[in-house]
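task queued by scheduler; priority normal; single chain, no ligands, no partner chains; default sampling; output format set to structure tokens
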Amino acid sequence: MNEPMWKSIIADSVKAEKSRQETGDNTQEKKYYSSMTEDEELEAEVTRRRLEAERKRAARKRAEQIRIRQNRIIAFCALVTVIMIIISIVVYKSRSNAAASESSSTVSTEIKSVTKKTESKAESSSKAVEKEQESKHKIEQNNGMTFVDDILIVNKTYSLPEDYDPGVSQVALNAFNEMAEAASADGISLWINSGYRSYQEQEELYNGYASERGTEAADEVSSRPGHSEHQTGLAFDVNDTSFGFEGSAEADWLTEHCPEYGFIIRFPEGKDKYTGYTYEPWHIRYLGTKLAKEITDSGLSLEEYLDITSEYNDE
């Protein structure tokens, strides 16, 4: 017997056996149902439907519980989100208010500072006006410059604008050259060590002194920017600007003869409390011959002669 034939016989045998089993099962099921009465069948159907209904209710209940839990989770997340938003808004407003308060405080401080300075300047100006009214000298303000009896005044009280830039006065320079020739005839050599200085040059010079000696010491030997006579173009430092110049033949000749050519020793010896500076025998200021002689002969400093002050307003 070949292989295909015996495989076919086995298959037919399996199918026949399976058919007999199914027939037997159906017969038993029919016998079971045929053995039940009509009331029992009805009761069984009712029970089956009740169980089915209970399963559906349980399924619906589980679904409802799941939906409720989901809704609660969603509501909780929404509530947390709202709380976070509220907290963020409160924090932002708090920071904004703090910044506004700080800014307001800063502005208030600045306003008070400006007001104080303005009041101080107003008071100083008022005192100057009162002094002017009491004084026999005429004080005028013109483009930021101060003139007393038509004399341009620059000292610790009165300043020049930063942009005032006239250069050296040719009249003062001619007068110095004439004086230097006369000195030369007497065997004295005079030259200009330092003449015109701009506001910026004076600022650099003063800052150098201040960094080396401190502001208080610098104020005794140098002028603050805007307060230097060198910016007028009418002042010169002659020869040596150290205290070694004091008592020299050149210093003595200069002190004796400079008024003849329109100059004065601007910061005379012993006049510190009036001029605001220590004695500088090398520093001369051009005023014209007539006035220079009058002031020198009076023995007064320029501040005393014009009844003016020379003090920085640091308030």
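post-processing summary
- Residues 191 and 239 are 6 Å apart (CA to CA).
- The beta strands are 139-142, 145-148, 151-153, 192-194, 235-238, 263-267, 280-286.
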